[in-house]
Design goal:
Elements: E1 2-7, H1 13-22, E2 26-29, H2 30-36, H3 43-52, H4 65-73, H5 76-99, E3 105-108, E4 123-128, H6 131-142, H7 146-155, H8 159-165, E5 168-171, H9 176-195
Parallel strand pairs: 1-3, 1-4, 2-3, 4-5
Helix pairs in contact: 1-9, 3-5, 6-7
The structure holds adenosine-5'-triphosphate.
Adenosine-5'-triphosphate binds next to helix 1, helix 6 and helix 9.
Amino acid sequence: MLIALTGGIGSGKTTVARHWVELGATEIDADLLARQVVEPGTAGLEQVIATFGPGVRSSNGTLDRAELGRIVFDSQDLRLKLEKILHPLIQDEAQKIIANTKGPVVYTIPLFVETNSPLKFDSVVTVSAPQQVRVDRLVRQRGMTSQSADARIAAQASDKQREAVADHVIDSDCTLEELKERAAAVYHSLLAGQDK
Ligand code: ATP
């Protein structure tokens, strides 16, 4: 069973994914894969450098994300060019892990709505919480300013958009203990549905 888990910044999806792993799921983290496919020595990094120039390789050989970010920031064309390199590499890696995993796999993908994953998910779950709750978490636990938390939230799809494509919505406006209980309930109902 392949579950897509999404949610905006500060929504609690990492907390949900971690609990599902405790319950036996294997997690694939799309953000982590996105970093792995451009590590030094990968074909991905060489492709990015061939496309965006040697200036995106930092002196220690790693990808200079800040420089790459500056280059693609203003240009949708260049962003698409970058996605065209990265997305197939990320999907290949994800598919390899899925093929080699027995049991439920949770694919944590923050930008599920914004990107178009060709993977066939059995279920899509999103984690939602009011904007102010998420901003408070980001300010208190990540040291962000409330302005930058608001800006990061505004740059992503909305909870409504994620909820529209989700089979299950987990409301994380509750205590951490309750969030784990809610996550477990969804997980068990997904497993039960699979047996029918
Ligand atoms: P990001 O996309 O930024 O990685 P996320 O959706 O993965 O965010 P988490 O990392 O799970 O969110 O949660 C953000 C922060 O808020 C964490 O420090 C987490 O412990 C805290 N948090 C999440 N849910 C709750 C909750 N229900 N009550 C209190 N704190 C919470």
